[in-house]
C-alpha cells in the first residue's frame, strides 16, 4: 500500500497465512524480534518512535486449531510486550470471553483471559466482531494509549468486522 511500511511474517513451509502490519511512512518505525520463547509463527512486531519514547506495536493471529507449542509462544509474546509500552492487536479466536464482565466459558478462553488480567493489559474491543462473538483484540499496557474504538462493517469478503481506533501517545 502506497504511503505505508510493511511488516510481515509469513507461515513457513505453507502457501497462504501469516500476518501483515502496515504503519504510515511518516511514522518512524522498525521491526523488532522478541525473545526466542516468544517468537511466534503468526505475529509481527514493530517499535514506533514517539518523541523521547518507544511504543511496541504487534499483530497476532491465534488460529482456532493452533498447536499447543505455538499457543504458548503467543502467550509468551503477550507477556513480554506487556512489560513495555505496547499495543497488541489481532484475531485470537477466544469467542467465549465476556470482556465487559471479565468472565469466560471454556478452558482455552479462561487461560487467555487470565493471561490478559495477569499481564495488566486493557482490552479495548468490547463489542462483537464476528457474529455475536468478540474474536479480535486491541490490548494495551496503558489504557490511555487507545481511544475512540469503533466496530465497522467487514472489509471486502471478510467475515470479521473492521476495528478502527486511535493510538494516543505523547510526541
Automatic annotation (TrEMBL):
Molecular function per GO: catalytic activity
Pfam families: Exo_endo_phos_2 (PF14529)
One annotated GO biological process: cell adhesion involved in heart morphogenesis
Descriptive protein name: Endonuclease/exonuclease/phosphatase domain-containing protein
PANTHER family listed in its UniProt record: REVERSE TRANSCRIPTASE DOMAIN-CONTAINING PROTEIN, TRANSCRIPTASE, PUTATIVE-RELATED-RELATED
GO CC terms, sorted: extracellular matrix
Residues in Endonuclease/exonuclease/phosphatase domain copies: 58-159
Domain of life assignment: Eukaryota
Organism listed in the record: Ridgeia piscesae
Gene3D superfamilies assigned to the protein according to its UniProt record, in alphabetical order: Endonuclease/exonuclease/phosphatase
